[in-house]
Design goal:
The complex is a heterotrimer of chains A (about 675), B (about 325) and C (about 140). Chain B is an alpha/beta fold and about 325 residues long. Chain B has helices spanning about 5-15, 60-65, 90-100, 120-125, 155-160, 165, 195-200, 205-215, 220-225, 250-265, 275-280, 285-300, and strands at about 20-30, 35-40, 50, 80-85, 110, 135-140, 145-150, 150-155, 180. The N and C termini of chain B lie far apart (about 55 Å). Chain C has one domain: Rossmann fold (3-Layer(aba) Sandwich), CATH 3.40.50. A four-stranded parallel sheet of chain C has the order 2-1-3-4, sandwiched between helices. In chain C, helix 3 links the parallel strand 3 and strand 4 (about 105). In chain C, helix 1 crosses helix 4 (about 115-130). The mean pLDDT of chain C is about 90. The chains are: A alpha/beta (about 675), B alpha/beta (about 325), C alpha/beta (about 140). Chains in contact: A-B, A-C, B-C. The interface of A and B includes residues 609 and 651 of A.
Chain lengths: ~675, ~325, ~140
């Protein structure tokens, strides 16, 4: 085919929007003399059907192979006119637009100057159009499966939504059970429904759903590939219990020599477990796991004459020979729902968390008020100093009467590096205060606060309710908690009355905030996620793409993206699920056309483009160049987003962004600079 | 001080290895103070190797220069290592080549030569003109002894050293597999005085300065060809499609050529000064390149050619990079 | 004489922020001088620094690069690369005596139509003050 450029130039009046300021006839006349221009026309509305027809007919009748439309911004109508070209069976990337409305007629008044500028812009477009190349938009298939990292409520909800839509889900959870933080909560604000009652049915659902493959006690080791085609490697850690044989009866844990001697992660130190354990009674899967760091047999190779659990287990499920297992599979989309860490209260030493047994965190209180918790819902607090060795019978406990909450511990606090509000503490404080009053009706509960943020549905009403119930709110951020006799003293200033306070109490509850997970780095490295200033994972756009990430096909849900309460988490999980379902259900994704490509003959293999690419879309590969093995850059077309940063980084001009190549931009510069 | 006998024995041993292609060093040239690169392939050729204040050439360029000619089918490329003698500045070129993956660390054997500074040929020839006999030289306690036919001449080294050596911060190789001799004490205190001097002038004076300098350019491309960092298979400044620089020799194109080259070297130039040394028109190219070295060091705290593990300067950024120039 | 000089400024705008900001200026009918001609690129990170030299050589009296504010880049970090590259380029041009008023860079977001106008006014004003850049013109070659 003779590919000598035959260009059609179409100057749009846009009613009078352009024609009022720009002499469109003069521009069209001018364009007709530019090199390779076969046809040059002006028309009232190029985007209208007759306008588009004009182009299509000229393509057919005049044999045009390039089209320049001088009209509004390409951000407005580039897709429209690309479609026009495609309908006339011309490659849609043979289109170039000159923006003579937003950037000319609308911003200039002087008709002569605006016309001259429009001529320049059209000329620049024509010179670029001469060098345009046909481009193809490629499609890649989508593996109809999703990986969800994290089995908290966000991961559970997203998994159920996707599985119910008929797609396979791999739900990977680091701990032995799904459920996450929500499973540790007693009641949920502001409606006070029991957390377990609403969560456990969902946990059971993910455990039994035919489309969900639950990989608990597992960690993602490696992720490669791109949207539609991610290759996943998961390490299933050895549980030392045969999942098929374990019935979850729990006799092993009763028999274990360490029963009641290992602090339970689930009970956040308020209760104990054995070396073989179920994290909590409703755990899913209801299969026991041996803690390899504590089990006597695994750490010392010896547990009495023989491990008691082995003897106790009737089905013979215990298997000390079990090894970690690597599972590999492919998915089309990934949802990151790795959750949060609770702020470590010992980082605020002034509140004495490390020193006194009756300074506890809100999560610890959560376990105390829970009917299923270690104290069966009774508020029993230890006395004395932490870390003191006491025999069980000597342990002094009591029920507190004077109780104070300190809010914003680890939130809105630059000294610990957390400027953000954790969004849940105000309300869980109100909830816990309410529950305490339920359990200890004669208790005096007060809350030291900076501001009360009761912004959600039913929140303000709930806050009013607990105040009516007698919870006192004192505005002031305590500076210190120390011991005086049997009591704890809170030192603060009531900032509303400007009076100093020394408040003697029995129990201090620190309303600790939410923090990015300690192991967030591992996830960032796996997926090349970005972090926002608060160190939580960064969404693609704070308003309009809140569940997306910079990597196509990777979505965020829940507190990994920032502190959230349960309704927001669930909503975001559903959003992430429906975003993931887009490519899954269409079965294909389009690969952009205006992406980078490499001239292997001139590439020097320096890797500047590889280092520059924000999407790790470029790698160095070894090729045979006339008998020599040399390394050159190679673009993964599915990962490239067409920013062109590589092109500007390349010293030899070997990597070029299609449609924005050096040889296409230089003529534009020459025209706009030199006319 | 490098022991020549040790150098020769190491060189012989090295080129006798099956996995070594050749060793690149220096030998005395044919006349005056000239020194030539010396490719040692056979042990006996090592006898000619020298290391002296006359060894100005940066041999690192030869690591990336060899043309990869088409090989007949079935012929394996020669993958043997290349051994290379380096001064401190030369070693920075090797490091930077490693950073840019122009060479691989395991493809080379770096023989480090602690250096007390090399001569500026022009300064020496001015002092001892018309030397047709080959003259050797050696360092001695802060002086350079020239073994002239009429007898030895001792000159304080500051008087004959190349300008770059007067402020050298890296007299000892920053990368080597083995070192010839003990490290020398660092004397340089790089303050970029030459750059500051020009910066202090007003823009019109600066433009005139460079216009005059670039006008004398004959576009021989020696500066590019000798540069250890310039080794693209196909330099964009040579290219016709697209044409970045016209081939005509005039102030505009010459200026564009030198600015483009300087920019391409920003964060990569290791200030070996070879471009200026070989320039037949005497263009003060180091004064140009060192401006960007100064900016890169002062504003971005980056010094190229020091750490083989570092990221290329222009392919990295810090969130706090300066932006006071941005509207 | 100098009052009549109409400088010619070539501008490279990223598609997502600055070009959209310039479009917004248009939609809002903000009026500004017609001396700035825009080349659209997808990201300020795409702008090859040698384009600046080329534009000055090809007749531009001034060059402007405009991208998203730091942290807003549509491609995450393209504007950070641009900032570093053009920070160097600015120093280089200044050093060889190119009037610093000829080269400018700005951050203009998609919502900053008014800022775009301000930027245009400023760079045009600066280019006017700097005057025509004849010394470096390619087309003034006298064969």
């Amino acid at each position: 085919m003779n590919n000598k450029p035959k260009i059609g130039v179409y100057v749009c009046h846009c009613g009078i929007n352009i024609a009022k300021t720009v002499d469109v006839d003069a521009v069209a006349e001018f364009a007709s003399h530019l090199p390779n221009v076969k046809v040059s026309r002006e028309y009232s509305y190029m985007c209208s059907d007759p306008g588009q027809l004009l182009i299509k007919e000229d393509i057919k009748n005049e044999g045009l192979n390039r089209v320049v439309v001088a009209s509004c911004s390409p951000r407005m109508h580039e897709l429209t006119f690309r479609k026009t070209l495609a309908e006339a069976e011309l490659n849609p990337y043979y289109l170039e637009m000159a923006n003579i409305r937003e950037q000319c007629s609308w911003v200039h008044e002087d008709r002569e100057k605006a016309t001259e500028k429009a001529k320049k812009l059209v000329a620049a477009a024509v010179y670029k159009a001469r060098l345009l190349e046909p481009l193809q938009e490629n499609e890649v298939g989508v593996e109809p499966a999703t990986l969800i990292i994290g089995g908290g409520i966000a991961g559970i909800q997203a998994a159920l939504d996707i599985a119910n839509a008929g797609f396979k889900v791999y739900l990977v959870e680091k701990t032995p059970s799904v459920g996450g933080r929500m499973s540790q909560l007693d009641k949920t604000f502001p409606t006070l429904d029991c957390s377990a009652c609403i969560l456990t049915p969902k946990m059971v659902d993910v455990g039994s759903h035919p489309n969900i493959e639950l990989l608990t006690y597992s960690e993602v080791e490696d992720i490669s590939g791109y949207i539609g085609n991610f290759d996943i490697k998961v390490r299933k850690k050895a549980r030392y219990v045969d999942m098929d044989k374990c019935t979850g009866c729990g006799i092993c844990a009763e028999e274990c020599r360490l029963t009641g001697r290992i602090s339970s992660e689930y009970e956040v130190g308020m209760g104990n477990r054995a070396a073989i354990y179920l994290p909590f009674p409703q755990a899913v899967p209801a299969k026991y796991t041996i803690d390899p760091e504590r089990c006597l047999f695994l750490t010392r190779g010896k547990c009495g004459k023989s491990p008691k659990c082995v003897d106790a287990c009737a089905p013979g499920a215990i298997d000390f020979e079990q090894k970690d297992e690597i599972v590999e599979f492919k998915v089309g989309a990934i949802i990151v729902a790795t959750g949060f860490d609770v702020f470590d209260a010992s980082r605020k030493p002034e509140f004495g968390y490390n020193d006194y047994e009756n300074v506890i965190t809100s999560l610890e209180l959560e376990r105390l008020v829970a009917a299923s918790g270690p104290t069966e819902g009774n508020i029993i607090i230890g006395k004395g100093r932490k870390g003191e060795k006491k025999k069980k019978k000597d342990r002094e406990t009591f029920t507190p009467k004077e109780i104070a909450f300190i809010s914003c511990v680890g939130s809105r606090d630059e000294t610990v590096g957390n400027e953000y509000c954790s969004r849940v503490c105000c309300m869980y404080t109100a909830k816990l205060a309410h529950l305490l009053l339920e359990k200890i009706p004669d208790a005096n509960v007060r809350v030291y606060y900076m501001d009360v943020r009761a912004f959600g549905k039913g929140f303000e009403e709930f806050y009013d309710r607990v105040r009516r119930e007698g919870v006192r709110y004192i505005r002031g951020n305590p500076s210190e908690v120390f011991k005086r006799g049997d009591k704890l003293v809170i030192k603060a200033e009531n900032t509303l009355t400007s009076t100093p306070i020394e408040d003697e109490v029995d129990l201090v509850v620190l309303a600790v905030g939410l923090e990015p997970r300690q192991d967030a780095r591992e996830v960032i490295d796996l997926l090349r996620l970005s972090q926002s200033g608060d160190r939580f994972f960064m969404e693609a756009h704070p308003k309009l793409a809140p569940v997306d990430t910079a990597t196509d096909g990777v979505f965020l849900a829940g507190c990994s993206q920032g502190p959230k309460d349960i309704p927001d988490t669930v909503a975001q999980a559903k959003g992430a699920a429906s975003s993931a379902l887009g490519p899954l259900s269409s079965g294909k994704v389009m690969i952009q056309a205006q992406i980078a490509h490499v001239d292997e003959a001139t590439c020097r293999g320096c890797g500047f483009c590889v280092e520059t690419c924000p999407y790790t879309a470029i790698e160095l590969v070894t090729v045979n160049r006339v008998g020599h093995m040399v390394s050159v850059a190679k673009v993964n077309e599915a990962l490239c987003k067409g920013c062109g940063a590589c092109t500007a980084a390349c010293l030899s001009g070997s990597i070029q962004q299609r449609s924005f190549m050096d040889e296409q931009i230089l003529p534009q510069i020459a025209v706009l600079g030199g006319m | 001080m490098v022991d020549l006998e040790k150098l020769k024995s190491i060189a012989k041993e090295t080129v006798s290895r099956d996995d070594v292609k050749y060793l690149i060093g220096w030998r005395q040239g044919t006349y005056g103070f000239r020194v030539s690169p010396h490719f040692v392939e056979k042990p006996e050729e090592a006898e000619e190797l020298i290391f002296s204040p006359l060894c100005t050439n940066n041999l690192a360029s030869y690591l990336v220069l060899p043309e990869k000619l088409p090989l007949p089918r079935g012929v394996e490329p020669d993958s043997r290592k290349v051994a290379l003698m380096v001064k401190g500045c030369d070693s920075r070129a090797v490091v930077q080549q490693i950073v840019e993956q122009g060479i691989k660390r395991d493809e080379i054997i770096v023989i480090g030569c602690p250096c007390e500074g090399v001569i500026d040929l022009e300064k020496v020839e001015e002092r001892f003109p018309n030397q047709l006999e080959s003259v050797t030289a050696q360092w001695s306690n802060g002086k350079i002894i020239f073994h002239l036919p009429e007898g030895n001449e001792e000159i304080p080294k500051e008087e004959v050293l190349a300008t770059k050596c007067l402020t050298c911060r890296y007299p000892n190789p920053v990368l080597s597999d083995l070192m010839l001799g003990d490290e020398v004490e660092t004397w340089g205190d790089e303050k970029y005085e030459d750059v500051k001097e020009l910066e202090a002038k007003d823009p019109q004076e600066r433009w005139s300065f460079w216009e005059e300098a670039f006008s004398s350019c004959v576009r021989c491309y020696s500066c590019r060809n000798v540069c250890p960092m310039c080794y693209c298979e196909d330099c964009i400044l040579d290219r016709l499609n697209p044409t970045w620089i016209n081939r005509s020799n005039n102030a505009s194109e010459n200026t564009a050529f030198h600015l483009a080259r300087a920019f391409h070297l920003a964060g990569r130039c290791i200030e070996c000064g070879e471009c200026e040394r070989v320039c037949p028109a005497g263009i003060p190219l180091t004064k140009l390149n060192r401006k960007l070295s100064k900016v890169v060091q002062e504003n971005y705290e980056y010094i190229p050619g020091i750490d083989p593990e570092s990221k290329p300067f222009q392919s990295s950024y810090r969130p706090e990079d300066q932006e006071d120039f941005i509207l | 004489m100098k009052e009549q000089f109409e400088p010619n400024v070539v501008a490279f705008l990223c598609n997502w922020c600055s070009y959209a900001g310039a479009d917004l200026a248009g939609t809002s009918r903000v009026q500004y001088q017609p001396n700035v001609n825009i080349i659209r690129v997808m990201c300020s990170g795409r702008v090859n620094p040698l384009f600046v030299i080329n534009a000055l050589q090809q007749g531009a009296d001034g060059v402007l690069i405009s991208g998203c504010h730091p942290g807003d880049c549509h491609y995450i970090e393209g504007n950070f690369y641009a900032r570093r590259r053009f920070g160097l380029m600015k120093e280089l041009l200044d050093y060889v005596g190119v009037d610093p008023r000829r080269f400018n860079m700005s951050w203009v977001s998609a919502s900053e139509g008014n800022k775009w106008k301000d930027v245009v006014e400023e760079v045009v004003e600066k280019a006017k003050e700097a005057g025509p850049f004849e010394q470096f013109r390619r087309n003034k070659i006298n064969w």
